[in-house]
Automatic annotation (TrEMBL):
Binding site for substrate: P175
GO biological process terms, semicolon-separated: hydrogen peroxide catabolic process; response to oxidative stress
Lineage: Eukaryota, Viridiplantae, Streptophyta, Embryophyta, Tracheophyta
Cofactor comment text: Binds 1 heme b (iron(II)-protoporphyrin IX) group per subunit.
Keywords: Calcium, Disulfide bond, Glycoprotein, Heme, Hydrogen peroxide, Iron, Metal-binding, Oxidoreductase, Peroxidase, Secreted, Signal
UniProt organism field: Carpinus fangiana
Name of the featured protein: Peroxidase
EC main group: oxidoreductase
Required cofactor(s): heme b; Ca(2+)
Residue positions binding heme b: H205
Signal sequence annotation: 1-36
Entries under InterPro entries matching the protein: Haem_peroxidase, Haem_peroxidase_sf, Peroxidase_pln, Peroxidases_AS, Peroxidases_heam-ligand_BS, Secretory_peroxidase
Site (Transition state stabilizer): R74
EC number(s) stated in the UniProt entry for this protein: 1.11.1.7
Catalytic activity reported: 2 a phenolic donor + H2O2 = 2 a phenolic radical donor + 2 H2O
């Protein structure tokens, strides 16, 4: 038979176990609230044609101008690094908004707004007020990658749009072309991204173009580690003075293909931006660059994984924020 002392111990143990279970459930729910609202099937019933409509809009835009693929990936990146992936970058100046578009890292360079607006307009025709601009940005980046031979990935949906923007945060938190390695690592770490994530995401520079003003200091610096022949080639389109907006492909070898030539370029000291070349300059990320230069499959896989992580930074879900009717303005 069980004596009274044993019965008392068992009752207390059950109470303690119940308390511990409640604490565990509370912590679990509080740390995964945002993720719980996300699902790759989020619009299956409320707007079943949303994904195909957005995909069609992106394919059309990229077929018109292949550079647009890089621009859409960058637009999503520049959104997620400021206030999280909330479509704040799409907001124009208004009496209540100071647009992030005017930040130093965005002004005259971030593009693709009209493509997102077009996709949003098409979705609104059949499902008004259902699909967020933030989700469209996330899907557009994935669909743009696929359109130029890059990897695909599953995009979890359910983001909502912010009603604010922050020019100050954009200028403080978006990477700059002149950032050194410690600053870049710290910046990405603050967003929950590893050094490997950072190098993989930088591989998006296998596509796209940069303005002369962003790389002039590198190609005319006699103390730079840049390949001399590469520097001379770049100087043809980027004079020592003037021509600030002249464009040059970030990857001179295969500028319109999503491949791993970007990393091969870095090993040959042919990175166009200082913030590119710093990834292979005797520092802690050299080994990651080497790995991706040797295995395009590994790069594509890691790029997809890093894009998923980035696309889930500080989300608005549930009843937070709103679903904007027009991406450039709050409702």
């Amino acid at each position: 038979m069980v004596n009274n002392k044993m019965m008392s111990w068992m009752r207390n143990s059950n109470k303690n176990a119940a308390v511990l279970l409640l604490i565990f459930l509370f912590l679990s729910s509080s740390t995964s609230t945002c993720k719980a609202h996300l699902s790759s099937h989020f619009y299956d019933h409320t707007c079943p044609n949303a994904l195909s409509t957005i995909r069609s809009a992106i394919r059309t835009a990229v077929s018109r101008e292949r550079r647009m693929a890089a621009s859409l990936v960058r637009l999503h990146f520049h959104d997620c690094f400021v206030q999280g992936c909330d479509a704040s970058i799409l907001l124009k100046d208004s009496p209540s908004i100071t647009s992030e578009r005017n930040a130093f890292q965005n002004k005259d360079s971030v593009r693709g707004f009209e493509v997102i607006d077009s996709a949003k307009a098409e979705v609104e025709k059949t499902c008004p007020g259902v699909v967020s601009c933030a989700d469209i940005l996330a899907l557009a980046a994935r669909d743009a990658s696929v359109a130029v031979g890059g990897p695909s990935w599953s995009v979890k949906l359910g983001r909502r749009d912010s009603t604010t923007a922050s020019l100050a945060l954009a200028e403080a938190q978006l990477p700059r072309a002149t950032d050194d390695l410690p600053k870049l690592l710290s910046n990405f770490a603050s967003k929950g991204l590893t050094a490997e994530d950072m190098v993989a995401l930088s591989g998006a520079h296998t596509l796209g173009q940069a303005r002369c003003i962003t790389f002039r200091g590198r190609i005319y610096n006699s103390e730079s580690d840049i390949d001399a022949g590469f520097a001379t080639t770049r100087q043809r389109r980027c004079p020592a003075t003037g021509g600030d907006q002249n464009l040059a492909a970030l990857d001179l070898v295969t500028p319109n293909s999503f491949d791993n030539k970007y990393f091969k370029n870095l090993i040959q000291k042919k990175g166009l931006l200082a913030s590119d070349q710093i990834l292979f300059s005797g520092g802690s990320t050299d080994s990651v660059v080497s790995k991706y230069s040797q295995s395009p499959a590994t790069f594509k896989s890691d790029f997809a994984s890093a894009m998923i992580k980035m696309s889930e930074i500080d989300l608005l879900t549930g009843s937070a924020g709103q679903i904007r009717r027009i991406c450039s303005a709050v409702n």
